[in-house]
Specification:
By secondary structure, the chain is α+β, with helices and mostly antiparallel strands. The protein is 30% helix and 27% strand. The protein has helices at 2-11, 18-25, 29-41, 65-70, 90-99, 150-166, 226-230, 236-257, 264-270, and strands spanning 45-49, 53-58, 81-84, 106-110, 131-138, 171-173, 177-180, 183-194, 199-209, 277-281, 287-294, 300-303, 308-311, 315-320, 323-324. Helix 2 (18-25) crosses helix 3 (29-41) and helix 6 (150-166) crosses helix 8 (236-257). The longest helix has 22 residues, at 236-257. The radius of gyration is 22 Å and the shape is elongated. It starts with a helix and ends with a strand. Acts both as a biotin--[acetyl-CoA-carboxylase] ligase and a repressor. Residues 18-37 bind DNA. This is Bifunctional ligase/repressor BirA.
Length: 325
């Protein structure tokens, strides 16, 4: 009942009487009182005034199923939410839930990951309370060949959510790293289970550096956080909700055509690689060229001195003052 209590208190403009809460949820005053006290113990500041009722005064930066459910405004993302204080990997758990027949839109969120993975099997830091670690599970009616484009859709959603939340500029380093001031603030890992012509499920894992004040020496030159860029702390649950509201918007546009034709212009506007000299780390033959934007299939358009090439996979580094990053 805690999520329901929170939702009512959030939506109220004034005090909510204990009697109204009893009638709304069909429980006793004692049950309401216990629920309110549990929320207070979790860090929520709730004022209780005789003959008036309860009023929510402030909300802590906390992640829990109750918090995430109480602020949920999305249409279908998060219809099932699982929260874990510590987990090995949200992607791994989301894939298990897909196999257990949970519906599309199931969301897994963790306070900390101890076996988080990035692209190409890389590990990454997942400290407790500092970031957002979450995975959305989808079961879309989508051709497997079109599924990789969902990574770019997710990148657009995260970028838009960060800009709206912080009021600061953010960009996308193709295909799916979110950067602020040239440093990575978010990584995205999409994994798929599919048949020849049918998608069983897709999981989109997102890790956002929120409250981090520093990073290990080996990644400090290329990593940043929302706090390091703004000097401000942000409510992680609210940012999670904003990401998925943005994702539903972009996903609907994507599914109209099952490609990025309706999103190319906006994606290119956020693309930090665009009009920059890049090095494409193709395993067969690395090459340099000028990044021009993306195609409706999500490929990076790179003009070399001899031809135009389309990059569909691989690492792309942008040339800066200190070389390629």
């Amino acid at each position: 009942m805690k999520a329901e209590l929170l939702s009512v208190l959030r939506d109220a403009d004034d005090y909510v009487s204990g009697q109204d809460l009893c009638e709304k949820f069909g429980v006793s005053r004692t049950a309401v009182w216990k629920g309110i006290n549990q929320l207070k113990e979790a860090g929520y500041e709730i004022e209780a005034v005789p003959n008036k009722g309860y009023k929510l005064l402030s909300v802590p930066d906390t992640l829990s199923e109750e918090e995430l459910k109480s602020i949920r405004k999305t249409a279908w993302v998060g219809q099932e939410i699982f929260y874990y204080p510590v987990i090995d990997s949200t992607n791994t758990r989301a894939k298990q839930l897909a196999e257990e027949d949970y519906p599309t839109g199931t969301l897994v969120v963790a306070g900390q990951q101890d076996a988080g993975r990035g692209r190409r099997g890389r590990s990454f830091e997942s400290p407790q309370g500092a970031g957002i670690f979450m995975t959305l599970m989808l079961k879309p009616e989508l051709s497997p060949v079109n599924a990789p484009m969902l990574t770019l859709v997710a990148a657009l959603a995260v970028c838009a959510a960060i800009v709206k939340t912080t009021g600061r500029p953010a960009g996308i380093k193709w295909p799916n790293d979110i950067v602020m001031n040239g440093k990575k603030v978010c990584g995205i890992l999409t994994e798929m289970s599919a048949q020849m012509d049918y998608v069983n499920h897709i999981v989109i894992g997102i890790g956002i550096n929120v409250h981090n004040e520093s990073f290990p020496e080996e990644i400090a030159p290329v990593a940043t956080s929302l706090y390091m860029e703004t000097g401000e702390h942000f409510n992680r649950a609210a940012l999670i909700e904003e990401v998925w509201e943005q994702f539903e918007h972009y996903y609907a546009i994507f599914m109209e055509t099952e490609d990025l034709s309706g999103l190319v212009k906006e994606y290119d506007a956020h693309l930090v690689n665009r009009n920059q000299i890049v090095k494409v780390l193709d395993p067969k033959e690395p090459f340099e060229g000028k990044a021009m934007g993306i195609t409706p299939r999500g490929e990076l358009i790179v003009d070399t001195w001899e031809s135009r090439r389309l990059v569909s996979a691989g690492e792309v580094s942008v040339r800066g003052v200190y070389g390629y990053v």
